[in-house]
């Protein structure tokens, strides 16, 4: 007990000068205010919890919360600012190298196990806080006032417009989740869509939704690794949304080579994924990366945008457009956290206390990381060049934004302000 009290005194002295609005409540009811007008209460459930404050970092604090050694009461956004203040050295440029065994081991079996561990908790659990289309990736806000349902449909449409999907085209979605994009693209743009996933729960849900939408024969979903998708030059357009974080840095050449093989010459691919903001290739993730690996995304890795573009270009895919959605994802995550909190009782029934805590703190902390610029997310649009080297693409980005949600717009109308003809020599 003497050691725990001494540690608390040391922490209190270190933080009192920073005026952190935190109240620490001990297991015996005793409380200590570390700043004026505390906005957050941190409850230590037993003397054992004090050890997390000897050399605190976001990883240890996240673990203590998930394992029930501490409780937090107060606004989550304020809590995360306080957690950052508690952990010296946290932030951009203060990342840790990933363990080598995590970098190199991306076998088919290991990747499948990692995906299933994250996504196969319960479809009903995800449905509590995702939007009506079950989209588990960054939404797209045009005004910032949209609810999560509209913002996610805007994202689906934004992707389809960027890819300039046309009726009858063959469209592939790598890591299709619960099937939202393939259903949207088929229903609104008339493509023949194929989606692949490694999650049993997602696969079953997507199949059921395809049947309910009456899209059998036009839309197909497979339980398949991206490396095992057969064929050469099969697809006119390819999307990968929120999937390549699972690929592994060392596997990026294999990943983009698979896309290049499957894409027709002149076809388009859109890669939508999270990146680290640390350009040092030895580093990936932020201070809580071991928490993420242990509890959330086992075997996941984040690459810097420069590494992504380099790997893509080395596989003869030419970058056409890059768009950052960093602030969009921060807003998306806070929408999810609010919806999860509103469904706490049902979430506890479906997933249990531990999983509820994991998803709550992971999503809130991720929102904080996006806002602070420790991580980002980009949509990268690229093409597989035709043998002539010409690229058939609009002159400007106007086609991405004019008449949003105007589905099945004729190509000649779509290109009214942007020619789709090759650039003159």
TrEMBL record:
Keywords: Lipid metabolism, Methyltransferase, S-adenosyl-L-methionine, Transferase. It comes from the Bacteria. Residues 130-338 form the Polyketide synthase-like methyltransferase domain. The keyword Lipid metabolism applies. The keyword Methyltransferase applies. GO terms for molecular function: methyltransferase activity. Its EC number is 2.1.1.-. Residues 406-425 are annotated as: Disordered. Signal peptide: none annotated. It is an enzyme of class 2 (transferase). GO terms for biological process: methylation. Belongs to the CFA/CMAS family. PANTHER family: CYCLOPROPANE-FATTY-ACYL-PHOSPHOLIPID SYNTHASE. This is Cyclopropane-fatty-acyl-phospholipid synthase family protein. It comes from Thermithiobacillus plumbiphilus. The lineage of its organism: Bacteria, Pseudomonadati, Pseudomonadota, Acidithiobacillia, Acidithiobacillales.
């Amino acid at each position: 007990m003497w050691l725990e009290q001494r540690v608390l005194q040391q922490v209190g002295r270190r933080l009192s000068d920073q005026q952190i609005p935190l109240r620490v409540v001990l297991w015996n009811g005793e409380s200590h205010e570390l700043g004026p007008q505390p906005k957050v209460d941190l409850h230590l459930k037993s003397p054992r919890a004090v050890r997390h404050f000897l050399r605190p970092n976001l990883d240890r604090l996240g673990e203590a919360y998930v394992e029930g050694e501490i409780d937090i009461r107060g606004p989550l956004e304020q809590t995360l600012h306080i957690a950052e203040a508690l952990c010296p050295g946290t932030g951009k440029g203060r990342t840790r190298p990933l363990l080598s065994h995590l970098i190199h081991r991306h076998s088919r079996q290991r990747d499948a196990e990692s995906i299933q561990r994250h996504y196969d908790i319960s479809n009903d659990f995800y449905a509590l806080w995702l939007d009506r289309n079950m989209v588990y990736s960054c939404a797209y806000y045009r005004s910032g006032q949209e609810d999560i349902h509209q913002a996610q449909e805007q994202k689906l449409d934004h992707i389809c417009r960027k890819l300039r999907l046309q009726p009858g085209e063959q469209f592939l979605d790598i890591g299709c989740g619960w099937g939202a994009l393939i259903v949207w693209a088929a229903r609104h743009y008339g493509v023949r869509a194929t989606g692949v996933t490694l999650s049993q729960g997602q696969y079953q849900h997507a199949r059921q939704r395809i049947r309910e939408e009456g899209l059998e024969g036009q839309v197909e979903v497979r339980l398949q690794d991206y490396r095992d998708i057969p064929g050469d030059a099969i697809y006119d357009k390819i999307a990968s949304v929120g999937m390549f974080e699972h690929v592994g840095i060392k596997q990026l050449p294999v990943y983009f080579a698979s896309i290049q093989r499957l894409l027709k010459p002149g076809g388009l691919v859109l890669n939508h994924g999270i990146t680290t903001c640390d350009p040092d290739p030895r580093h990936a993730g932020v201070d809580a990366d071991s928490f993420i690996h242990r509890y959330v995304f086992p075997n996941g890795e984040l690459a810097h945008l420069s590494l992504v573009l380099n790997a893509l270009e080395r596989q003869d895919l030419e970058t056409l457009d890059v768009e950052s959605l960093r602030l969009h994802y921060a807003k998306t995550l806070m929408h999810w956290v609010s919806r999860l909190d509103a469904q706490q009782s049902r979430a506890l029934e479906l997933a249990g206390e531990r999983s509820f805590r994991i998803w709550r703190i992971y999503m809130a902390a991720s929102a904080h990381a996006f806002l602070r610029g420790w991580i980002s997310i980009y949509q990268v649009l690229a093409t597989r060049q035709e043998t002539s080297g010409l690229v058939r693409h609009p002159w400007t980005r106007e086609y991405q934004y004019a008449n949003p949600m105007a589905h099945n717009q004729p190509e000649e109308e779509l290109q009214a302000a942007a020619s789709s003809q090759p650039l003159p020599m």
